[in-house]
Description:
Keywords: DNA-binding, Repressor, Transcription, Transcription regulation
CATH architecture of the largest domain: 3-Layer(aba) Sandwich
Order of helices and strands: HHHHEHEHEHEEHEHEHEHEEHEE
Protein name: Ribose operon repressor
Helix content: 40-55%
GO molecular function: DNA-binding transcription factor activity; transcription cis-regulatory region binding
InterPro entries: HTH_LacI, LacI/GalR-like_sensor, Lambda_DNA-bd_dom_sf, Peripla_BP_I, PurR_sensor_dom
CATH topology of the largest domain: Rossmann fold
Number of strands: 12
Pfam families: LacI (PF00356), Peripla_BP_3 (PF13377)
Amino acid sequence: MATMKDVARVAGVSTSTVSHVINKDRFVSEAITAKVEAAIKNLNYAPSALARSLKLNQTRTIGMLITASTNPFYSELVRGVERSCFERGYSLVLCNTEGDEQRMNSNLETLMQKRVDGLLLLCTETHQPSQEIMHRYPSVPIVMMDWAPFDGDCDLIQDNSLFGGELATQYLIDTGHTRIACISGPLDKTPARLRLEGYRAAMRRAGFEITEGYEITSDFEFGGGFEAMNALLALPVPPDAVFAGNDAMAVGAYQALYQAGLRIPQDMAVIGYDDIELARYMTPPLTTVHQPKDELGELAIDVLIHRMAQPGQKQQRVQLTPELVVRGSV
């Protein structure tokens, strides 16, 4: 494999001149630039990203640790993060925790060892990253996405899930529903817990009692929504409306209602959360709470890059406001 020294020898110039031509960081005459470029082409030379990262003490790489899921929300969010990285000249290295604490910390150590310039964490589990690992790499800035509470000195970006839960439930109340159930995600996850609290707050404010069995804790997955809706339909008095804590569970609920021969929204109103791309193509299109996924990814990258440039500044806590998207399921 050709080296920069080989290019310099063939072009008849110094290695520093070759470096200036490649990096375009200093003026080099057109004639010499042409010689260097011809030598690069003839030798099929490719600059070493590793060598450059060691010299500059940066890799132009951002690591991201995420809990993989069948929930399309995560893939849509990662897409937004990757796009934002590319637009800003960074590469993204993605690791999946599978919801396992040991795997999470192993991946965390791996990303740190690869000398990523910064790290994004989107893992809404109760277990948190190893403080031992975090303290071992104090210079790597970290942005937490929807992971709270957290004791470390990290920037935090969250969706206002409490407000979103209230927004969804209040819309069901405003459209005349009184028997309103909630299918929540796992209550060890902060967004799920806050959305459930938002549901309860809206019900209390309207003076509605929550019927026994109308709150079901599920798993944020398609199958969980299917099973939860079947449980609600088996109650002596089923609800007339359901707030699903995310769109994936709403999709499962749709299937359960379809198999039961019930119509949406005539027999049961359904509202979701996240506004995944699939929501608008369902039958009927799903009314849901929009999480600004592209904005969330873009903001996370910008906050992280700002932290890399100015590591001494006070940590930021940013909360994005969800919005109701009215379609045909209520």
